[in-house]
Design brief:
Blueprint: H1 2-23, H2 38-49, H3 63-82, H4 91-107, H5 116-135, H6 140-159, H7 184-208, H8 215-222, H9 230-251, H10 257-387, H11 390-438, H12 442-459
Amino acid sequence: WSLTCINFFLIEWVDVTNDLLMKCHINLHVTKLTECGANVFVGLYESILGEKVPDFIASPRSQEDDAHNVQAVIDSLALDYLQVSLSHITGEYLHSWREHCERRERIYPKSVEGSESTSELIRLGDTAHSFSLRNEGSMDSVNSTEFLKENLSSSAKKLGEPIRPAIPLQPPYQPPEPRPHYSMGREYQSSARQSLSFANSHGLEASVVIKDNDLLPLLLEEFPYLHISQHSMNKMWQQQLAQMEQLKSASGKDRSRLKLQSEVEEALKKHDLLVDIIKKDQNHHKRLQEFKQRIYRQKFAQNKMREKRQQIARAKKYYEDYRVQLRAKMMRARTREERIFKNLFEEGLEIQKQRLQELRMYSKEKRAEQRRVHQNELESMENYYKDQFSMLAEAVSQEHQEIQAREKAQAKTLHKTKRELRSKMEKEIQHLQTLITQNDDDSFFRELEAERLKSRLQMASFQYSKSYFL
């Protein structure tokens, strides 16, 4: 009956899936839930939200690519729209659940409404499977069935509510009018409840009416966590089979003991096949974990290498900036010194030109004055010659005295000028010495040197040949 309920739920959810695909205008049709692969989830995402799945692999080549696409849909819904954590749902889990359902369909028959022998075979297989799992301390099949029922009931409850996005969509993807409340989920929910109530009521009837081989399975269902040894369980099965064989051999209505044993062996083979499938699932999960760890290590190494390259690039950039700044500073200092020297040279040329012009004017005035004085002397000498010869000697002596007095005055003035110049030079030297002890800047000393040379040029006496004055 548990398989009946599960198949009923699966058929109902297949109808829900096809109805949803039709309303989203997706050209897909599923006959069972195991056909809902990554393409179904991606198509529903793009049709409802109106945008592409981020980090989507267009042409998947392996099961890992399909799981990656499903995981991309789950992450986008959790981060961009629902704003809730969906870490309990992963693409690998959906893919493994789909494979698990396919294996179960291959092992168990699809129809549970067959003959009585088929139902007995299924009950024997379930009983043997639960017994072996109980001896190992695990109830994976029971837990998976309960988990499937819980998922179906919770999904049926969620389907009855209208879908509302956690954040408003943009105008290109926003629906023109609010969606109507879809009440089909309640119909599925009510039908699911009816099927569960039907299964429970049938289970109660089965607990009252015990058929041929239902005594030991019924007791095991009533005591699910009771630990029974393998020897005792085999002995009880043999006792029950022997009793049924005696009853059947007496009445001649039921099957022989060998047929029952073959059915039990077939059920045990199916149980062993289920165990192999579970082991393969565990190995597959282990390989997936190793693959994830290998990818994580590769990404970690790549991040380390990228960080190292970034550090090297930052160090090179810092060195280049420092070198450029230092070179610019040296060029500025060199340019400043060159500009100071150039200005000093130009000022010296200008001073030299002005002094040359002044000396030329002074020489012209001196020559004119000397010619005038000479002319006056010649005229006076002529007059003296004409007037008195005696006064000529007096004039000559007087002129000689005047020349001596002028030479003495010039010598005195020159001596005074030298003394003043010497004192001024001493003061400048002392001032330079104090400045040298106070400041060590090269440009400052260049400027002081330029000022000193400028003052010396202004006070210097230039000597030229007579060709400059002509």
